[in-house]
Specification:
The structure holds two protein chains of two kinds.
Chain A (H helix, E strand, L loop, with lengths): L1 H24 L9 H10 L1 H35 L1 H16 L6 H8 L3 H24 L4 H9 L4 H38 L5 H10 L3 H30 L2
Helix pairs in contact in A: 2-10, 3-4, 3-6, 3-8, 3-9, 5-6, 6-8, 8-9, 8-10, 9-10
Chain B lengths: L6 E9 L2 E11 L4 E5 L6 H9 L6 E8 L9 E4 L11 H5 L1 H6 L5 H10 L15 H15 L3 E5 L7 H14 L4 E6 L2 H7 L2 E6 L2 E5 L13 H16 L2
Parallel strand pairs in B: 3-7, 3-8, 5-6, 6-7
Antiparallel strand pairs in B: 1-2, 1-4, 8-9
Classes of the chains: A mainly alpha, B alpha/beta.
Chain lengths: ~240, ~240
């Protein structure tokens, strides 16, 4: 209850500071519209924003699902096989040296203007954090457990599945928590580079038509979308793994 | 269960260039409870790890193994200082871990029977974090019994328990592990005096055998014979290097 109260107070404080900034600095509405104008734009364009938000949400969710699944499998593969580790790890690290944003035009070229180029962006941006968080956790299994398994004559694949993976799930969860905040960034960049739908597209469109209030409305909806996703993933992780 | 073999070791161990123990000679007779008593840092856990097949980091010069000459692999169960329970598994699943790790059939009824022996039938469906330290160590004992191996290695498994839980665990283990070859590493003289059918004292000077009282194990903790033996063991430890 106190937490909800604090959140409400913080929101109120942010809105008030925003309004104060607009009023005191006498900012024109095409630079920074006040909260009232943005709320108005949000309400009068609610159907339009909802349509675009749904598209972005789908891109983010599909990217998140595929990227996490791929990260889950890769981390296990890397942890299970020293050969895979020595071959793939340099490639993974090098791939991080290329800014994912730079790939957006190429992905649009390859996958088109539709859903999949955005899904690919979201996937690429979350793949590394998920893989590396889970991989690190897989490599930190308590030595006592591994020794117990050895004395019990367990083959490595079964040790992986029955001990290392379950013990590392909290690490996977922390990767997932990062991913859920990164994934919308990927989707929005994808939409900026080339799209006909989605909140990123809507923002560019509104910007081009000097509808700054609509742009901010879309931005706020994007923020709420991300926060909701984060809360949902957080609750899911807590429930599943207590971490 | 195959007949329990004797254990023997003769040689010295190093990790890198650091000498860990020896040269020394150790014999643990078949089907008996041997306590390996010594101060911390004398290398007794390393010695135990060799028998468990875990001493990858140890360079051992000499011979060790089972008295019957067959390999020890698959004939050894280990109970360590920590209970090593998996927090995501309930008590029954922890007890049957070995079977699952080997892809063998899980003998659930047998597990429940063993949980009954260690007095935990009412806790079979609980998670480890719902149990006390003593109860958790009893689950570890049940898991060790479930493995049904002729050789049981104990690495100070009771040292983290309070005095009363420890005494109870000693009684329970002595009863349930009787007939197996037990090698029990401990730094607790009272424990060695209660449990050891053979007591080996390991110090910087090497390995020496102490003469235990003839009372059956587990010996009564306040019997004059046990107490005198306890005193003698401590004296032997104090007078060594």
């Amino acid at each position: 209850m106190t937490r909800a109260l604090h959140a409400a107070a913080a929101t109120l404080l942010a809105v008030l500071s925003w309004q104060a900034l607009v009023t005191l600095a006498d900012l024109p509405r095409f630079i920074l519209p006040g909260p009232g104008l943005v709320a108005q734009a949000l309400w009068s364009n609610r159907a339009l924003i909802a349509d675009h938000a749904l598209i972005t949400a789908i891109e983010v969710l599909v990217g998140l699902g595929l990227g996490s699944a791929l990260g889950f499998v890769s981390a296990i593969l890397l942890a299970a096989s020293p050969l895979a580790l020595s071959l793939l790890r340099p490639m993974l690290v090098f791939s991080q040296a290329i800014p994912v944003f730079a790939l957006a035009p190429i992905l649009t070229l390859w996958l088109g203007y539709g859903l999949w180029s955005k899904v690919a962006m979201a996937l690429l941006i979350i793949y590394f954090p998920v893989t590396s968080a889970f991989f690190d956790a897989l490599m930190r299994t308590a030595p006592g457990w591994l020794e117990l398994a050895r004395v019990m004559n367990a083959p490595p694949a079964r040790v992986m599945w029955h001990i290392r993976v379950p013990a590392a799930l909290p690490g996977f969860a922390s990767g997932l928590r990062l991913a859920v905040v990164y994934a919308p960034i990927g989707a929005i960049i994808g939409e900026w580079v080339g799209a006909s739908q989605g909140l990123g597209y809507l923002m560019l469109l509104a910007n081009g038509r000097a509808k700054i209030d609509l742009m901010f409305a879309a931005l706020i909806v994007l923020g709420i979308l991300t926060l909701t996703l984060h809360a949902a993933v957080d609750a899911l992780c807590r429930r599943l793994w207590g971490a | 269960m195959t007949p329990p073999p004797a254990l023997h070791l003769s040689g010295q161990a190093k990790i890198g260039d650091t000498p860990i123990f020896g040269p020394l000679v150790m014999e643990a007779p078949a089907g008996q409870w041997t306590c390996l008593l010594g101060p911390s840092g004398v290398g007794k856990s390393t010695l135990l790890r060799l028998f468990a097949g875990l001493g990858d980091e140890v360079t051992f010069e000499g011979t060790f193994g089972a008295g019957d000459g067959a390999p020890l692999e698959g004939r050894v169960a280990l109970m360590a200082q920590g209970d090593l329970l998996m927090p995501w598994l309930d008590v029954t699943a922890n007890v049957t871990l070995g079977a699952r790790l080997r892809g063998a059939e899980v003998a659930r009824d047998r597990a429940l029977g063993i949980l009954d022996w260690v007095g935990l039938s009412d806790h079979a469906a609980k998670r480890p974090d719902e149990l006390s330290g003593g109860q958790r160590q009893r689950v570890a004992l049940a898991r060790t019994l479930m493995e049904d191996r002729p050789v049981v290695l104990l690495d100070e498994p009771f040292s983290a328990l309070d005095a009363r839980s420890r005494a109870r665990m000693q009684d329970l283990s002595a009863e349930l592990l009787a007939g197996r070859t037990v090698l029990h590493v401990t730094h607790d003289v009272a424990e060695a005096a209660r449990l050891g059918q053979v007591v080996l004292v390991m110090t910087g000077d090497g390995m020496s055998m102490a003469e235990p009282p003839c009372a059956q194990v587990p010996r009564t903790y306040d019997a004059p014979g046990t107490l005198a033996f306890q005193g003698a063991l401590l004296r032997q430890l104090m007078e060594a290097q």
